[in-house]
Specification:
Length: about 375
């Protein structure tokens, strides 16, 4: 008997839904890594405030800046990796988060710093790939942001963290400004991308000057203040303050961020970064908390659904951490500039509570939804 040839086996291919779910799980893990960086950074903030902290370690206090900026905010940049759509692109935010975890762990500090340098190299490559796909001025701005992040990681490794502050600030400010120009393109107009590229280039050159020449950091302050003024004038803030609900919440969070950025830039231009502990505190936390975290609070209802595939509905409860953050910063800066340590500590603790409160509120809203 002659047997008939067997039919070829069907090759199982994953469905589009399964692929999307797997990608969502990867992004969720990266967000969790960013959350771990945030918790470590907040613990380090309490250590630096010289108040009670869950983990008391001098080392944790020393790496506070890198953990918060590159570990937390750098990991949240995974949205760009999602835009590129290549698996290797997710290594950049993963390495930022892994580097932050290594910095707060018993592992050698050098390991965490090298991981963040590697993440910076990958992020530059990621943005260059996006620019080759769409060579627009706005994408060029994002390339500059990645270069600033890489430069900050290298300077922190080879010099020290205070000299890397201007690079980290440039990374956060330029990244968020590009995000605002993209989200508010209809309001800002077609020329906004080119103007932002000019401002971002000026900030990058001023940051390089601050590393090479004493006093160059004052030019960084002027560049930051100029970016704050441009954003406040051309963004949707003035149009949405009179509205209600989520639009007013967005406008207030944006306006608060721009005010803090202008204040930090003005203090940096007038006094420099290392002229005194008060000025240093206002500059650093005005940029990274007042501006950076306010922008995270503003954009979370828009960005998180795109990253996680789950909605974050607006609720009035989101106002509580936003108000706490800005009230805490006002108390903190008053104490820092007046030399009142107790007031400075109280304001700092309130900002930590505000950030934790926002994370808890956002998580609750996502889960309940």
């Amino acid at each position: 008997m002659i047997s008939t040839p067997a039919a070829p086996l069907a090759v199982a291919t994953p469905s589009a839904t399964a692929v999307r779910r797997a990608a969502t799980r990867i992004r969720a893990l990266l967000v969790a890594l960013g959350g771990a960086s945030l918790i470590g950074g907040l613990d380090a903030a309490l250590v630096r405030l010289d108040v009670w902290a869950p983990v008391i370690s001098t080392r944790v206090g020393d790496v506070h800046g890198q953990v918060m900026v590159l570990g937390f905010l750098g990991t949240l940049s995974l949205e760009r990796a999602q835009s590129l759509g290549r698996t290797w692109a997710y290594l950049a935010p993963a390495l930022y988060g892994a580097g932050a975890v290594a910095l707060v762990s018993p592992a050698p500090v050098l390991l965490g710093q090298l991981l963040q340098v590697e993440a910076g190299v990958l992020f530059v490559g990621l943005y260059l790939a996006l620019w080759l796909r769409a060579p627009r001025p706005l994408v060029a701005v994002q390339v500059l942001a990645a270069v600033l992040a890489l430069g900050g990681a290298v300077v922190a490794l080879l010099v020290d963290v205070p000299h890397a502050i201007a690079w980290f600030a440039g990374f956060v400010v330029v990244t968020i400004a590009a995000e605002r120009a993209e989200l508010a393109a209809l309001v800002m107009g077609p020329a906004a991308d080119r103007r932002l590229l000019v401002l971002a280039t000026g900030l990058t050159l001023a940051t390089l000057a601050a590393l090479l020449w004493p006093g160059g950091e004052r030019a960084v302050g002027l560049a930051l203040a100029a970016l704050a003024a441009w954003l406040a004038v051309h963004d949707v803030v003035r149009r949405q303050l009179r509205l209600t609900g989520q639009r007013r919440y967005l406008a207030v969070a944006l306006l608060a961020g721009y005010v803090h950025l202008a204040l930090a830039g003005g203090v940096l231009a007038a006094a420099g970064l290392l002229s005194g502990s008060g000025a240093y505190d206002v500059v650093v936390h005005g940029v990274f908390l007042g501006f950076g975290v306010s922008m995270v609070m503003a954009h979370a209802p828009v960005i998180l659904p795109a990253v996680l595939g789950r909605p974050l509905p607006y609720r009035p409860a989101l106002w509580v951490p936003l108000v706490l953050l800005n009230a805490g910063l006002a108390v903190r800066f008053t104490g820092a500039l007046a030399g009142l340590t107790g007031l400075w500590q109280v304001g700092g603790v309130v900002t930590v509570v505000a950030v934790l409160g926002f994370v808890g509120t956002a998580a609750t809203l996502v889960v309940r939804r």
